[in-house]
Structures are given as C-alpha cells and as structure tokens.
Predict the 3D structure of the following.
Amino acid sequence: MLPVNGIEHCLKCSICHAACPVARANPNYPGPKILGPDRGRFMMNKSGKTVPEVEWCTNCQRCEVACPHGVETASLIRALKQEALHEKKHYWRDLLMGYPHILGQLGTAFSPIANFMLGSPIGRSMTAQMMALAPDSSLPAYAGRSFQSWHRGQGHTASSNKVVYFVGCFANYNRPEIGQALVALLKLLDIDVIVPKQVCCGVPLLSNGFRDRALKLMSYNVQNLLPYVKQGYSIICSCPSCGLALKKEYGRELGTSEAARVGAAVYDSSEYLDIYGQALEEHLSAQSWRLTYHQPCHSLAQGIGTPSLSLLRKIPGVQVSFVDGCCGQSGTYGLKEEKSGVSRQIGRQLIEAITDQKPDLVATDCGTCSLQLSRLSDLPVEHPLVLLEKAARGAAAGLGDRYRPAV
Amino acid sequence: MRYDTVICGAGLAGITAALVSLSHGKSTAVVARGESSLYYMSGYLDLCGNGDNPWNAIDDLAHANPAHPFALSDAKEKSEALAFFVEQTSPGYPYAIPVDSRNHLVPTCTGGIRHTYLLPANAGADGLADRGRRVRAIGFTDYRDYSAQLMVDRLNKKGYSWTAAEVESGCSKVSQTSIDLASYLDDDYPALIDKLRPVVKDCDCLVFPAVLGFKKHRVIVEAIRDAFGTAVFEVPTLPPSLPGMRLSSALISRLRGLGGDLFWGFPATADNSAGDRCTGLIVDTPGRPRLIEGENYILATGGIAGGGALVERERIRERVFGLPVETYGTTDERFLFGEQGFARSGIRVDSDMRPIGPDGKIIYKNLFCAGRALAGYDPFTEYDGAGVAIVTGYQAALAAIRRWD
Amino acid sequence: MIEEVDVVVIGGGATGAGTLWDLALRGIDAVLIEQHEPGYGTSGRNHGCLHSGGRYLVKDPELALECYRENQILRQVAGAAIEDTGGLFAHIKSDEQDYVRRWVDNAHRIGLPVEEVSATEARNMEPILSSEVDRVFTVPDAAVDPFDLIYMNLQGAVQKGARFMTETRVKELLIRDGRVQGVLAEDIRTKEVHEFRCRAVINAAGPWVGIIASLAGISLELTYGKGSLLVHATRLAQRQINRLRSPSDGDVLMPGKTVCLFGTTDIHIDNPDDTVTWADEVKSLIEMERPIFPDLPEMRVLRTVTGVRPLYTPGAAGTAERDANRGHAVINHGARDGVGGFFTIMGGKLTTYRLMAEQVVDEVARELGVTVACKTAETPLAGLSIGNARNFLETKAICECEQVTEDDLLTAAIFLDKVRSGGIRRMTRLGLGPCQGTLCIWRGALYLYRKGLLTDQECLTFIEESLDERWKGNRGVLWGDQIRQAELERGIYRGIYGSEGD
C-alpha cells in the first residue's frame, strides 16, 4: 500500500481532533488524528491490527474540512472501517439500513403498515428491538407516494433548459415536498426537471464500512446519470450527503473517469439556485419568519460556501441567523441503539446555539439533520427549498407544518 | 458571485482584513484551507519584543531592518489596527489593550517568563508583575500536557512564591488533549469547582492550564471567580490551543454576522490569465473547481507552517499566486534558540502592501498581502507574530478599499 | 570510587552489548562503559538489515555465508528484535546483466535459498518498484531493530549480573608491567570519575576504537567512511529491497516498523564524530532513489541518519590480526603490541555482531583461563517489555506517532542507569515518528518529571537536548512537510518556553 489520502502530510497538530464532534461527545472515541493518520501509518505495515473504535466515526468529514494540510482523515477512517468489518457487532442491521431505497420502496408501498411500525408506540418498540435501534429514535415517516411516482404524473414543460434531479432517498420516500419545491422553483426559472433511474447514493453503506457493496450502487448511478452528463445536463441534489458523495466519493472510490465526469456536473440545489439568485429574488414575497440556518456537515464539506443562507436572506422581511456545528444525527447513526446517546450529546450544543437565537423556525438542507433538530428542539424544521417555494408561492404563507417524524 | 474583497486565508491577518473590509461595507469572501495557526498558537497576542515596552522594540526593529513589515506603518496606524481588532473580539472572546500600552508579564508552562501585549480581558492580566501576589497554580493529575508543580518549581527559583496543587479533572475520556478536557468542563464544570474547594486557600489568583472550557469558557471563569473570589489566569499548553480556538471561533462568527462569506476547507490557486490584475481564485472543491471573483484580493495564507509558502528541495514557492519569494537559507545547529534563516522568507511588498518582485515592481495591481506570508521577520524570535498579523491585515484591507474607492 | 570486575567492555553498540551478554553467559563478571547511550554510534545509525548474505554473494561469498549462518542463528535467539520481512534483489534493465548470473551461481554454491519471481509479481508485492526492473529474486533477508537488539543484549546481561554505565567516557587505561590493570572513566556531565580494576579490557568502541587504543599508546591503522540514509515517514515497502548489482551507494530500501530507510552513501572522513549530513549527500541519495523507486523522491523524508564505519587497514606485514578483509577483526594487543589483557574487536556487520562477540570473548576467556564455551547461539534473548501498544490502540500514548506509552517510558527509565533523552529515545522510540517530537518530547519529559525521575532542571534539559538532536537529523531535509513540521514545532516550543534561560 502506497501512502494514500495525504497520510504523509499530517503534522500531528491535532486540529482535526479539535474539530471532531464525536471526540467531544464520546469519551471512548480516540478521535480522527489517532484513528486516521496515526493508525493508518501502522496499517501500512502488513502486520497492522484493526481497531473497532473506528465504528464511532460519523463520517461528518469535519476533520477533513478543518485540516490545513490536506490529510483526508475521514477517508482513512473509512478504509479502516472496511478492514474492521468482520468485527462489527450489528452487521445485519447496518447492512439493512444501507439500502434505504429498498426500504423506501417498501415503506411507501405499504405506508400505513410502515408508519404503524415506525410511528405507533407498539410498532416503534418492536422495530427498535428488532433492529437494535434506540427506543426513543425518531424514524422518518414514509410518504404515501414517492417523489418519483409523483413526478411521473407531472407533464414536462416546453423549456429547453433541463436539469437532472438526483432525488435522494429522503426526498423521494419520506418528504416528497422537498423535490416538489425544487421542481416548482425551477419552473419559475423556466427549467425543466428530469428524474432518471437511481438508487441510494451509497453513503449509508460506505459510512458503515461496506465499501464493496457501496461501489455497486455508485456504479449503477453513474451508469444512469452519465448519458445526461454527456448531453451537458447538470445534476441537482437536494440532499447534501448525496451531493457530496456524487461530487467527491464517487470519483475517489470508483476511480473511473466516468465517475469523475458525473461528479463534475453535480450541484447542490441551493448552489444551483444561487446562480439564478437575482431572477429568483423577484418571485419571493415578504415573510415575517425569524429563521436560524444550520448548515449540514456534508454541505460544508462541499466547499460551496453557504448558498442556502444567501438564498434565504433574499426573502424580504426574513431574519436569518447562522449557527455552526454538527447535529450528531449523521444519517442512521443517531437511530442506532448504541450510538443514539452520543448523537444526542453532539446535538445538544447545537440546539443550545440555535435556541439562543430564539428563532421561529430552523432551516437545514439535510433530511436526517432535520430529524435530529426536531427531535431535540421544539422548533419546526424545514428544507430551504420548501421555505423558498413557500415565499415564491406568494401571499403570507404560514409558517408551515412543523416537519414531523413518524412519532 | 463577485465580491469587493476576496481574502485567501482565515488566520489572524486574513480575518482582521475581512472584518475591516466588511466594516467598510464591502462585500467580502474568505477562502481558507482548513483552520488557521490560531489553533496551535498560544493565544497570547504579542505585539513586539520580549521586554516591557513593545513600542520601543518596534522602533528598534524597524530601524535595524527597514525590510521589516513593521516599517510599513507608523505607531498611529498600529494603534488603530489594534484598537479595531480588540473591538472585533469583544462580542465573542474579548481581548484588552493594556492600560499603559506596555507589555504584560506572563508565565509559560515551563515556568518561563515572557512578555506579551494583548490578553483575553478575563485573564486577570499581569500574572507575574506582582511578585508578592499569592498565586496558586492548579494542575490536573489526569492531564499529561501540563504540570503546575514544574511551572512553580521554576518560577520560584526566579523570586516568586507560588504554590501548586493538583486535582483530578474527572474527565474520563480515552483521549486527553486540551480540547477533551475543555469540552468535558463545558458540560461538567460545577464538579470541578467542588474538587477545587479543598485545595484553594490563601490566594489572590488561581492559575490553570488553558483548558477552562471552549463554548462555556466565560461562564466557567466567572463560576470559579465567584466561588473563590480570586482572579483566574490560563497558561497555554500543547495544541490544540483553547485560547486560539475561542478567538478563531469568535472572529469567524463576527465575520458571518457581518455578512461575510466563508469558503472553507479547500486550497485555492489564482487565475492569473489577465496580466497585471488577478481575476479570480480557483478553489479546488469536490467535483469541480469553483471560481471566486473579486475586485481586490488579499493574500493571507501564512508562511511555511501555515502553508502559504511551499518549500521545495530547490526553491520556495508561494502557493496561490506563484509570487516571488525572498529566501534566506542558513540554519542554526540549535533548534529552538538559534536563528533559522528560512523563517524570514516571504513576500516583499510596497508601502500599499502590494507584492513586488526583485525589481521592485508591483506584480498585480489588485493584490495585497498580509501576515506571516510577508518577508523579513521571525515571529518566534521577535515576539511580533500577532502584532504583524493584525497590523498588516488592517493595512492591507484599507489599501484594498482605497484602490476600490 | 573503585570497583573490581573481571572485564571492562568499552562501547555500547551491538558488539559491546553482545560481548557483555556473551561474558555474562560464561559467568565472567563484566561492566560495559558507553560514552553516550547504547546505540549512539554506528549500530544505531544504519538500515537495520539482517543480511541474508545476498549483498556479498559475488564480492565475498565467504562473508555471505557467514551472514546467512548468523541470520539463521539470530532469528532463533533474538526473534523479538527481528521482523521477518523477507528480501528482494531487484535488477534494473540498465544494470550489468552478467552480474545476475554470477550472483545466482554463487547463491547455489553456498546454499543460499534464492528464488526468482516475475517482475510483475514483484511489483504487486512491492508497488514502489520501478517498471524498469526486469529480474527479481527473493532472499531470506529480515529487518532487525538495532535499538531493540542492543537493549535486549544488555537486559539479558544485566539479569545475569553484568552492569552498564551510560554517559561515561573512558579517560585512561591503567597499564602496569605490560598488562592492563584497570580503567578510569568519567561521567560526561558531572565529571565524576569511576575507577575499575579489571583483568581484561575489550575495546568495542566502533568508530572510536582508535581513540581507546591510543590510550594504551597503540596505534590502529583506521580510516573512516561516513554513510548517510534517508528516513521516509511511512513504510513504503514490506520487504527489504536491494538493487541487484555490484554493492554500491544507494542500493537498499529497508522497512523498519513504521518507517523505511534508503541508503547509503560512502564518503571518506577524518573524524569519527563527523556525523553531519551534507546537502549534496542528500541530493545524491534522492537521485539514487529514482532509478529503482521512481515515486520515492516525492515521499516525505523525516530526517537523515549518518553513521561512521571504521575501516581497518593494517600494514601488509608483521600484523597479528586475523583476516582483516573478512569484515571484522579481533586483535589481541598482548601479542600484537605487548599490552596484555587488552583486546580490540572492530569492523563487521550488524548481522555478525554475535559472532564477533563470540570470537573476542573466546580470546579473553582463554586469557582468563575460563573454559566455558560460548552459549549465545543457543540462548534466546528475552524481548523488551516496551512497544506492546503498537499492536493495539493505546489512546493515552505519550508519543502517538510511535505509540510509546507511559509504561514504556517508565520501563526504560528504570532500566537505564541515567534518565537522559538519548537512552529514553533509543529504547522506546519516543519522538522517532513523523512529528519528530512536536508533542511527545514535552509530554514525555513532563511524565518523567511527574514520576520523580527528572528534576525540574533535568526536565528542561531533556526537552532541549531532544529538540536539538531531532533537529540534527532534520536540518538536511528541510523541504515539504518536514520543514512545515519544524516551523510548527518551533512555534509550539517557543510558545511553551518563552525566551532562553528563563
């Protein structure tokens, strides 16, 4: 193994350790420096031993963003997770949760049953026990109809401007309103939306050490997206984790030029809309919301700045504040029985920072962040796209329903 | 998106520049590759020299070395810059200008004595000025990066009569760096106060390693002060530096509050295609590079440690713009206390902080440079790192604004 | 203070330590005197190759056989210091083709097990190899940690009642009636003088053998060759990789635990203390890496290591030494120079240190009338109880790069007669990793201070000496990540310290 992921550039300055939300919250987690570049160096000796502690990494990638020396710490830890896969305690649970698109298809098809299992006290307790989930975890409810199914029923506009939408499992199966808001906003800009065949982006598998399986999902998506990219279409992601995966992980993990080509065409939804910020602004009506915006870690890690913040600030009359930090949810991490405590502990500080701002409403781009924030605070949480679409729909749109988990 | 000012680097110099630009109503973006050296520097913000009067030290340095960055400003500009900076820290982690404009005398964790200029306002200042002061140094038995006893042993040989005590922090984390302790105290500081009760007696000041909380620092210091009626002083230890982290976090939230944009985590290179003007920064972000354009650019990427200057086997390369770097080669066989020539390498600028070549000609009309990227000084031997960063950051931003107006 | 002892061994390298162990096993009471710390000299400044003999097959098949035999013995008795990496001999297209044939022939002749693998297979085994490599053979090379090896020998000897003194320099050999009677040695810091009354002195001072011999008025014909190595920050090869050509500079890439070493140069010098690496030496090493390991020059270099090889060049006639060209020599100065009870052992390889010790102790035993035979080839050396954390995760390690724990430091501090930076570093690997002590020098010194093993002043001295010693190896490789590391380290320590003398 030749040195990878910038392992040689580590100066042991411990900035990554200071940036790691898990190290602060979990007394048993040695932190990214020790698990990444330090342990990685020992693993370059073929007799190096795996360490089960890597399981605690949430893959938030704050360590990589914070590192001034270009060490790809999160990738190093993911590689060690893969090596330690056989030691995993909840192998089958983690594997099953790595296929949210299959769960989502079942969940939307049988949504009354699924939502009973996720929402009612009895169902929830059964599910938690079966799946080794935290008894108080708030699983997202399934929508009665997936976004893709809804979108198939929509006609296409005559516009020659088209983009491809990589929906992501959360917007597809749990909150189709997010995708619908995107379609509506793009329609205002005279841009039509294409939704190709797609499966889960692969992040849940990759973050849990199932790299080989993740690669299969990634290849499938590349195969389906590439023809559009070749025609010059941009790919829009409303989920920051899908977006980061497509931009960064696909190229790195698959190592193909096709994956890199797809990655180069990907935009975060706010990143894309921000390009049309001026045009969009004209459609936005005044609102009296007092908002706090939480930037998800995987949005931060895209290096796009804070386009959602700039867009929300364009809504007349809206006060927007910004809070920095990780919510601790990290996809399915916060749902898991053994990790939910740590996840909650991470989120607590962010919640304190948010409530200090005394907002009426929290905006965040990530579905699972919104789960955590609404679980830990008593505030309504919305995707910026949904808020923008409401403001664009005109009139004084109400604050909107608080996004409710299945509970 | 096009900005009035684009700043490369989010350390002391870069953020100071950004705050100046924002306070003049200019749209401002900061592009930074990761956290800055504030994360590992002590949080003592030196102005100049390891003596009582920093202003004399500045004059001496600028006189002896006309190429020193301090030679590019007068005392009035320097005072303005420091006053501006201190004002910016006040909402988050306030620092204070010494009342008599003289250096403070502070201890180091090896029991050394040194001078510094700006200290956090709640630091109880002058830890060492009064030799008769009854100081009790508190250490933690389970914190391996600090020994109160060592510091006291050494200081007492220099005429102090401090005492030392150790308590268990109670932090049960597998990793015990400063930030682990600080985040533990953020959550559980009342337990610390109970542990301190038996050991705190007969003293006017309590000295701790700099681990008294990150987010809750202010509350923790106040709680200790209230409980014991003493001053509270923190001594920096190994990185990560909590005072530096608090300062960095305070300055960045100030920047966000003023509407500055931050592009975080990825290296940038300049688009130099347009001759004598810089036209954009190309940030190496995932997926594809991102172009950030501005009227004026400020280079504040730091020096060798910060990553602004890339030392290759045969030359030193300025990483973003490829500017000419003035280099000094000789090294001393003593590591810590020797003169290391490379430390003085850097970018030479004109009186408007614009980088110039060996021929003295301006390289880009709209590029300004500040902080550790500058040539001609060694902050570690001259004790002027923070001073140069703040003053030149301030100057560079003002120069950029002048050009723009 | 006067002490009585049978034998004084001068020099704490592999040979000296091995000699002390051999003496102890034969029941001969001995003390070892080392001017710095064990492993300070040549033994601690080399690749750490446990040669299979492959390197000497063509030039000196007898030496090759000797290496192979010792290699097999050491795997049995010093296994804890050895990692069975295996070795490759890789031939580059442009190097002499006929050499390969002669090399293989001689391997068969002496019975060295070599096996050819395809170049493609070799590159799969070791991706660092150049595509210019056309023929590759496996050999039973291994890696030996010289520090572990030396301290294991000392530990074994101490358990049998031998003693060693560090930071003690021999000032005088007491000679009366044509016989050595004792040794005067002084502590290099306190200048305290120790007198040893003894029946024999073994000069195993490595590059300094000439200086010791001169204390007896004896002149040894010595020249000094300086060899430098580059230490890369990570382990870029799993096996020892040798360039298959007539032995020359820049032939070997050697993995050692977490790092790998490339070298060496060979430059004539006049002073055995001249271990400064020159800038053009570094430059030429980098260039020597390129043909066989094209990616290596871009990989982070932590430091240089420079050792001095003493070369014994006796006059043609009238000398009593045996077979000097076989790599090492045992000199009985009673026979050669009329100073009875005085013996010098010099030259040789790290791989043959045990054999050298055996041969010199055989001579000494004969002189002392001891008939017990050498047992070092059959008696296993216990490993050090240090460095166990490398196989799991010690999150509270003092040195996180090399996983040196508090227990490791304590073990070393108790074992060593003096707690000084050099001995602690060599015994535990404190500060040997990529950060070169940025965090762990301070942390380690504080730990020893808090345990009462260093005073406050000694604690600061420990830190300053450690920093200067690390700097010595860093100064030659100040580019890329390593100069960045050095600036970071300077900033941190200037921050901790304040100014000098405070």
